[in-house]
Amino acid sequence: MTRRIATSRWILFLGLALGGAAFDLATKSIIFQEVGAPPSAPVAVIRDVLELRTSYNPGALWGFGRDLPHSSLIFAGLSVVAGVAIVGWLFVGGAAASLPLTFALGLIMAGAIGNCYDRVVFGHVRDFVHFHIDSINFDWAIFNFADCMLVVGALTLVLFALRPEPAPVEPSAAPDESPAAAPLARDAESLPT
Q1: 132, β-bridge pairs
Q2: Is 24 known to be catalytic?
Q3: Among 27, 47, 164, 192, whose Cα sits 20 to 30 Å from the Cα of 75?
Q4: Considering the domain boundaries, does residue 95 fall inside one?
Q5: Could you list the residue range(s) of the whole structural domain that residue 98 is in?
Q6: Domain count of the fold of the chain
Q7: What pLDDT band is residue 171 in, cutting at 50, 70 and 90?
Q8: Catalytic residue from among 127, 139, 176, 187
Q9: Is 147 considered catalytic here?
Q10: Residue ranges in the chain assigned as alpha helix (H)
Q11: Cα 119 from chain centroid?
Q12: Composition bias, kind Low complexity: at what positions (predicted)?
């Protein structure tokens, strides 16, 4: 049996999923058009810290699984399966009753759609954000906004799972057992029948 989910949760989920995916795909198109396809020269945003450097990633987040044969198709298929599971969990299983879960899974869906589109259309994911701190030799893997949405959504899920359980609510006394009901009961017994 499916649970009735508020329309506002559908709007939130679809807004995050479709809006986030559209933002991701738009930024990829703009950056790859302006900066150029790899191996074009990077464009500094914050010198020695942040630059736009285009890159192709046939694997998953941070290049995981990039050497697998047909990795783009495998990860695209996994994205579709994850998308179906997310929609089922939220709107058939009723998890959309929770605002944090709807938010987290909307972001995860946005990231999955953005990167799945790239894998199906281009055969790889387009990455372009390169964070590095040269003074301490720190160099993070090149990523995109879909990756950011996936990570923020996953972290939100973890925080949601780690939240403390609410304290149980004590049941209130039944009307017959309340102190105010006692005089009424005595009065009723003293009435003539």
Answers
A1: 139
A2: no
A3: 27
A4: yes
A5: 7-37+58-123+143-161
A6: 1
A7: confident
A8: 127
A9: yes
A10: 7-35, 71-87, 99-122, 145-162, 181-190
A11: 19
A12: 170-185
